[in-house]
Amino acid sequence: MKNKSTFRIKKIEQDFVKFSVLIVLGILLIGSKAVEDIPEIPLQTAELTDTSTADFDGPHIFYRAGKILVKQVFRKDSITYGKIDTLLNSIKGMPITCHINDSLFFSTAVKEGIPIEESEYKMPSKLIAISDIEGNFMAFRDFLINNGVINSDNEWIFGDGHLVLLGDFFDRGLNVTECLWFIYYLEDEAIKNGGHVHFILGNHEIMNMNEDFFYVRNKYIENTFLIKESYQNWYKPNTELGRWLQSKNIIEKIGNYLFTHGGISEDINNLKPEIDKINSSARKYYFKSNKAELSKKELMSSIFSTKVGLFWYRAYIRGGIGEDVIDRTLEHFDVSKIVVGHTIVEDVSYFFNKKVIGIDTFHFKGDTEGLLIENGIEFRVEKNGNRSVIK
User: Fold this and answer.
1) Is the C-alpha dihedral spanning 199, 187, 356, 379 positive or negative?
2) Cβ count near 18 (within 10 Å)
3) 332 vs 326: CA distance, rounded Å
4) Calpha distance 156→189 (Å, rounded)
5) Is the separation of the CB atoms in 156 and 182 below 8 Å?
6) 35 vs 136, 295, 367, CA distance in Å?
């Protein structure tokens, strides 16, 4: 594991780069308030002067050499400390508890098995989609409670409805691990009640799975020393959360809707890939995306491209393409609409004559919104539970 001084030097270098990026963005954005002109979600002020420190985190479960290591960070009053347990027997079904703060926590159980997600589903009676929560556990939970997905005891009350999480639950926020475990927990809750949770990976999931930690907060760096585990190892295939992430898709079809984090470029259209082929092929590169980009396989290099790939594509919201590109995507995948996150919109909105729905709003400003589809009607739903027909 890297020593503490190495991490500090790296953090200083990252902060300098972030500061430089903000200056450039400021120059580019003077006189313009158009959301689509923003190259990336604006960096929070807290990131530039990141004062976050070690705090509740975990559990992180590692499978190594026949042993199971369970590592977690706790806080008692002003004292933060790490706890490491070594287990020799299976932990399938074992209860675990995640702490968000001193008074808020939830429990789940380690899954007996982690099946690969299907790529296509029938349209449920109701569906809620939200994206780009980025470690903001409280906004995520409040949104789910106020929109009738769960109650205040974290019990699923959405019946046979589906919850679609459209990527980027990593980075920027201070409860990334807890968000992941909460999704992990909600999956089982939904299935018990006839519903389903879809967690579709975004660029920030892939970044962390490939050791790109540009947006990781200082809290996590400090936590690495308390649990004696480099951040590079937290989400690898030999961890419970890493194995779980590897089971997820990057594109899904639900009824007549196509869901993916960024969008489908003409480069992808031209290859005419089937949904299941996209997911099964990409899954092999989740933890080695650099090899996919350099691959001689055109589909893989296109999928993971930072310009035209499914995780990064922004033309649906920013423009620069014709509606014919959208039409070819709809025709190829046999859907009527495409739902994307990744690129910020003022409100959940239509694009390209209602063929595209953008759902990534200003979460970091407190404007958490999502998409509700019920009885064939598409609503913009807010964190407080208010709903309105999308315009």
Assistant:
1) negative
2) 16
3) 10
4) 6
5) no
6) 21, 34, 14
- Token pair, residue 316, equals 């649906």
pLDDT digits (tens, 9 = 90+) for 29-72: 333 333 333 344 444 444 568 999 999 999 999 999 999 999 99
Q: What is the DSSP letter of 233?
A: G
Contact 258, 250 (CB under 8 A): no
* Rounded Cα gap, residues 158 and 186, in angstroms: 11
H or E element, residue 256: none
Is the distance from CB of 213 to CB of 6 less than 8 angstroms?
no
pLDDT surpasses 90 at 4: no
Confirm if 282 and 246 have CB atoms less than 8 A apart. Answer: no
In the beta sheet, which residues pair with residue 60? Answer: 71
From 28, 73, 332, select the one nearest 223 (Cα to Cα): 73
More confident call, 199 vs 364? 199
- Helix runs in 284-375, H state only: 289-293, 298-303, 315-318, 323-333
Has residue 8 got a pLDDT over 60? no
Q: Which CATH class is domain 120-389?
A: alpha beta
Rounded Cα–Cα distance for residues 39 and 36 (Å): 8
Amino acid residing at 90? S
What would the two tokens of residue 45 be?
């002020």
User: For residue 266, what are its two tokens?
Assistant: 């003409």
Contact (Cβ atoms closer than 8 angstroms) between residue 40 and residue 205: no
High-pLDDT (> 90) share of the chain, %: 83
- Rounded mean pLDDT of the chain? 89
Give me the residue label for tokens 């709003």.
Answer: 361
User: For the chain, how many residues are written?
Assistant: 391
- Report, as an integer, the average pLDDT of 230-258: 98
Question: What ranges do the domains of the chain cover?
Answer: 4-48, 57-109, 120-389
The Cα 325–Cα 3 span in angstroms is 49
User: What are the tens digits of pLDDT across the range 130-162?
Assistant: 999 999 999 999 999 999 999 999 999 999 999
Q: In this predicted structure, what is the pLDDT of residue 48?
A: 60
For 202-223, b/e burial (b = at least 16 CB within 10 A) is bbbbbbbbbeebebbbbbbbbb
Phi then psi dihedrals of residue 91, to 5 deg: -110, 10
Tell me if 56 sits within 8 A of 101, measured CB to CB: yes
User: Which structure tokens are listed for 361?
Assistant: 């709003």
